[in-house]
Prior knowledge:
The structure holds 2 protein chains of 2 kinds.
Chain A: H1 2-36, E1 38-43, H2 58-67, E2 72-74, E3 81-83, E4 86-92, E5 97-102, H3 116-129, H4 135-138, E6 141-148, E7 151-156, H5 163-167, E8 196-202, E9 206-211, E10 224-229, H6 233-241, E11 247-248, H7 254-262, E12 266-280, H8 290-299, H9 302-309, E13 314-316, H10 340-349, E14 358-364, H11 373-385, E15 390-396, H12 399-407, E16 413-418, H13 425-433, H14 448-459, H15 463-480, E17 483-495, E18 499-500, E19 516-517
Parallel strand pairs in A: 1-10, 1-11, 14-15, 14-16
Antiparallel strand pairs in A: 2-3, 4-5, 5-7, 6-7, 8-9, 9-10, 11-17, 12-16, 12-17, 13-17, 18-19
Chain B: H1 3-33, H2 38-43, H3 50-60, H4 66-78, E1 84-86, E2 90-93, H5 94-129, H6 134-148, H7 151-165, H8 188-194, H9 198-235, H10 238-245, H11 250-260, H12 262-286, H13 292-302, H14 305-333
Antiparallel strand pairs in B: 1-2
Helix pairs in contact in B: 1-14, 5-6, 5-9, 5-12, 6-9, 7-9, 7-12, 8-9, 9-11, 9-12, 12-13, 12-14, 13-14
Amino acid sequence: xxxxxxxxxxxxxxxxxxxxxxxxxxxxxxxxxxxxxxxxxxxxxxxxxxxxxxxxxxxxxxxxxxxxxxxxxxxxxxxxxxxxxxxxxxxxxxxxxxxxxxxxxxxxxxxxxxxxxxxxxxxxxxxxxxxxxxxxxxxxxxxxxxxxxxxxxxxxxxxxxxxxxxxxxxxxxxxxxxxxxxxxxxxxxxxxxxxxxxxxxxxxxxxxxxxxxxxxxxxxxxxxxxxxxxxxxxxxxxxxxxxxxxxxxxxxxxxxxxxxxxxxxxxxxxxxxxxxxxxxxxxxxxxxxxxxxxxxxxxxxxxxxxxxxxxxxxxxxxxxxxxxxxxxxxxxxxxxxxxxxxxxxxxxxxxxxxxxxxxxxxxxxxxxxxxxxxxxxxxxxxxxxxxxxxxxxxxxxxxxxxxxxxxxxxxxxxxxxxxxxxxxxxxxxxxxxxxxxxxxxxxxxxxxxxxxxxxxxxxxxxxxxxxxxxxxxxxxxxxxxxxxxxxxxxxxxxxxxxxxxxxxxxxxxxxxxxxxxxx
Amino acid sequence: xxxxxxxxxxxxxxxxxxxxxxxxxxxxxxxxxxxxxxxxxxxxxxxxxxxxxxxxxxxxxxxxxxxxxxxxxxxxxxxxxxxxxxxxxxxxxxxxxxxxxxxxxxxxxxxxxxxxxxxxxxxxxxxxxxxxxxxxxxxxxxxxxxxxxxxxxxxxxxxxxxxxxxxxxxxxxxxxxxxxxxxxxxxxxxxxxxxxxxxxxxxxxxxxxxxxxxxxxxxxxxxxxxxxxxxxxxxxxxxxxxxxxxxxxxxxxxxxxxxxxxxxxxxxxxxxxxxxxxxxxxxxxxxxxxxxxxxxxxxxxxxxxxxxxxxxxxxxxxxxxxxxxxxxxxxxxxxxxxx
Lengths: 519, 339
């Protein structure tokens, strides 16, 4: 017996010793990071594809935008487009010919010279490989030509007033000639000519970036950025609390953000251009009846959703075009928020009553939009049923199945979300409302007036005239109600108190070159 | 080695083939019965024209009839090829991922396995030699509690205590991002020792402690119970009484009893190893451990048929192999076993 006691005591002593030793060592990584000028960022997103010819998700675009750069870019933190690889440009022939003049002496991050030929080669590669985002080029560009080493000319298929916004997206970025010309090169780390270069990439574990010595612009404030990938928000939050990461980026749970804010962490809130909305199938009963759609829109209380489901981390949204973007109108405000009385009147007109209630299925997907999704669906069900004239059955399907149902138009009412491809009202209207572009969403909405208006808005260069058209389109949207805008997401970045320089643009991309850490 | 044992090994190895085939068929069918496919899961709600969708389906080979897809993949399997990923990214050999992820799971499994056996042996033996006392009851209670612990919950408790509260151990990952390690086997502890990279050894051991302790404790419950029961049985046998009568020291008697009680424990080890791989999925998710568990969950999300099929087949092979090894150890330990 004595021996057992001794053994246990010995083990306990070893453990305590280890723990104390660890306590000392635990500080070491942090000190090392400060000395080596590195910042560790945690994310729950993934890098899907390092080839801009195929990458098509918000976080991968963030990595690409920090390691590559296009002819133009957003001025950090604003919607203003400024010169990048190109120092100037001209527009000719009714916005169908765009001529860009490159800076002199440009280089890729490995020192290879970057000329107009590289720009053309990269864009033609995107067109040829037909990856997921290639339509951002092929739908607009007829051909692209390098007139000399510093001049790139785009010949467009039709006048495109927002072509500069398109040019800020990764499919237009020149890539290092090491990229495979004939095949999607998903794990290629050669990158482009952005502020950082990739020095290590282990899929699902980490990606390490180092300042690009050949970058033409501002030198990054932190030499090394390490991004660690987490499977869920809880593990990432624990890693932040334990000092394993300096920044917790996309995406913490609303409750985590609130509790971290109360402890000693910095919380940076940035308005996002990400929207959540509800879709109605306008072809099938009962949502084919516009009165039903209007009634359901009136019964929804966005403020309650924002407070109860998202703990105040999102903003109510009354149009598909997000708050703060030019041409935005609060068109759905006319129905009010949680306007039960109006909803009842409309339902009565549609032939429903308390004894003959409307039976409707509301669909959601349980994981793709985070843990709050089931709560969101439940909240909408409650709000609709407050009318006393609606009976809601909640249905859910995993993402792969859910999108299949949506594309086939098999659901009556269903929740979706939208991350913009480019920052222009066109990207918040055409994909949803143009009958030639909205087959993916499965609502079956088609309106000739809207089609004509949207086409016209794409071609007019004058922003004021375009704004008038989008305002008109939004009014039709609120009259026809194929979609009900719900909320607009804010972005939250939680950092250790000594981390500063968080800059996130309206394209929801964090610019790592502004991040820095003080001792 | 006797002829009988060689024949047995060959027979057992051949039995792995129908097991794998049945599993592959089940996974293949289940994946296809559900609506949707990998391309849709990736494209999601992105505004991609139908022609491009067709093009992507063609590249992934999903436009072929089901039986063609079934036999195509089977043919690849027979050549030791697990196919290529169908999503995020498309076209990377599944075997590349297995090479990257399997060592992580193996390392976690080995550590957890060792911890569970050590704890099981200690607690079970204590319970047996203190039979009927409060110590015995405590060990039995420990066994039940450990067995019923929910891995994510227990893991999170440990993360809070040793990470957030005491700040002594990391809560996630395999190694600190600022430690560079040249990998040879993919088992970080072993690689650190081979390359004499001591900071990497410290970091990888620190990262291993919490996940392997979580999984080890949860799995130790079964050992505690079986070790205790077998020990109690052996301790009541005549030869033990004879030892006692001759004045053999207590610890020697315990050691002899433990050796005799070991055969059923070995059987349990074989069974537990398969469960261990399953448990590793939950542990990996809780501790952000970049192994096979987190890999297969990612792939299920994308409906990556090839990656899921490949991983399941690989697991089946591995479990088959382990149970074969366990059977052989069994024979070595127990001379009564004949093949």
